[in-house]
Write a structure and sequence with these properties.
single chain, 219 residues, four-stranded antiparallel β-sheet
């Protein structure tokens, strides 16, 4: 019997030698390119070894991830992916809109506070200026086929970065720097191909707190 499309996808045939936290981070890095992820459930119990659930906010994201990553060699084992049999608790709770409304209110309040602090206007003054953009322009070098990555989280490994970058044509290899967890080099066949990957993944968050900064490596 076919399982109907679902926000939650079930992943199995996962390499069960991977530590739980590393597995969740690697799954996040791989699947978050398709859309916002609400949660990843990976349990290390005997019954659940080698399996995980990835919960997307949008159904279309779950569908795209399932199609694109079916059979993807994840830690040297081809992933098997299908829709989960039932909606996750996270989605069920979201369907009651009260939580969403509260979140939106909080976000709006935070944005207003940030704007007020940034402009430092006297109390009561209304600013017509939008708050400054959060993204910082990364100073860059002339185009190069090698990219330089920094602001990487401590747990970054070669596998995670390879999964992110090998979706782009011309990808050759990732080179980590021994003793420095927060930087890495990624090599492509040409400057143009490196530029496409740089633009697409600029500011990508491998973890919630670390936005990756990408520049061309110095020649």
């Amino acid at each position: 019997m076919d399982i109907r499309p679902n926000h939650t996808i079930y992943v199995n045939n996962v390499n069960d030698k991977i530590k739980k936290e590393e597995l969740k981070r690697a799954l996040y890095a791989l699947f978050s390119q398709f859309g916002q992820i609400l949660d990843i459930v990976a349990l290390k119990t005997v019954r659940m070894r080698g399996q995980a659930f990835v919960i997307f906010k949008e159904l279309s994201a779950a569908t795209n991830a399932l199609r694109q990553l079916q059979g993807f060699p994840f830690y040297n084992k081809p992933m098997r992916i299908q829709y989960a049999k039932t909606d996750s608790d996270v989605i069920s709770k979201m369907r009651g809109t009260y939580g969403d409304k509260e979140k939106k209110k909080d976000k709006k309040k935070k944005a207003l506070e940030q704007a007020a602090n940034a402009n430092k206007k006297p109390a009561g003054a209304i600013s017509t200026q939008p708050p400054p953009p959060a993204t910082v322009q990364v100073p860059d070098n002339p185009p190069n086929y090698i990219l330089f990555l920094n602001n990487l989280p401590e747990e970054t490994n070669e596998m995670m970065l390879s999964m992110l970058f090998n979706q782009f044509p011309g990808f050759k290899e990732v080179r980590l720097v021994p003793g420095k967890h927060d930087i890495s080099f990624v090599e492509f066949e040409s400057e143009t191909q490196a530029g496409v990957a740089k633009d697409a993944l600029q500011g990508f968050r491998i973890t919630a707190t670390c936005a990756m900064k990408i520049t061309y490596a110095k020649k």
